[in-house]
Structure formats: C-alpha cells, structure tokens
Amino acid sequence: MAATTVDLKEALAACAAGDRAALRAIYERECAAMIGVAARIVKRRELAEEVVQEAFVRIWRNAHRYNPELGPPRAWLYAIVRNQAINILRSGRREDLVDEVPEDVASAVQAHAAAERIPEGQALRRCLEGLEVRRRTSLLMAYVDGFSHGEIAGRLGLPLGTVKAWIRRSLVQLRECMG
To answer: RNA polymerase sigma factor 70 region 4 type domain spans which residues (predicted)?
Structure first.
C-alpha cells in the first residue's frame, strides 16, 4: 500500500511537471474505482464517466497544487472526483441525460398504475389521491420508479427546485394525512 502512495505522489509531481504518461498511470490505476465513487453520487454510469473525465482534466491542471503534507494523494484525487460529481448534480446537468424518447407520460402512467394497485380502503391510497396530480406524479416517480429529483425534473420539464419542493411538501402532507 505504501508503494502505491509513493507512486501516486511521484505521478502527481510528474503531472505537475507536464508528464502526460504520469497522468495516464494515475488514470489506469484509479479510473475504475473513481467511476464507482462517482456513480454512487450521481447514480448513472454514463454521468459517472463524465465526472471522472472532468476530474482528470482538473487533476492535470492542478497537480502542482497537491501538497503531500496535507494528506495522501489518493484522498486528494478522490476529493476532486467527489467535488466534481457534486458540482454536476448542482448544475442540473444530470437532467440533460434523460432518454431522448419522452418518457414523462409513460413514467407517470407507471407511477399511477402502482398507486392504483393499493387497495381502495387503505389510508395510503386515500392520502395519495388527496395530493394534487402533478405533485403525486413526481412523488410516485421518485418512490415507485426510483427516479432522482433531477431525472423527474428533466422528464416533466420542470425546474429542479420545483420538483424537490413538491416531493418534500407531498411527503409532509402524506405524513399528516396518515398520522
């Protein structure tokens, strides 16, 4: 393990000096794990690959900023990946990666079909039916279909903040109704 740390330190120093082969060595050693870390954050493989690609551009440009006294090189590398993934989520670029085929209608139909499978007399169904249709749709797309807030916003053509607020308020309303 210590050899890996030394190698990464040397590779980062070489990157800072403009050695592209050193960047390639870091890429070959860490890329798969970095994609895994990014995928856990952004929830989509293709977006995780984009995160890692952009992270390596940052690594190349900022290798001179790595200070071994502040921590191990691997921690520095993965902090860049994590920050890049979070930046992409915040920027809303995740919404741009929804499928080209408009699935908003299909997703809404699937979500409502799941809600309709709840027996009529149950409180959950009654409470869900008490929600405004678009809010109920966004809530069901999140919890039944497993879409992220960004994906729901992209599919429904709504601002991300609106979707987040609808889901949060709908959960509060459901909790009050069920309680």
So the answer is: 122-174
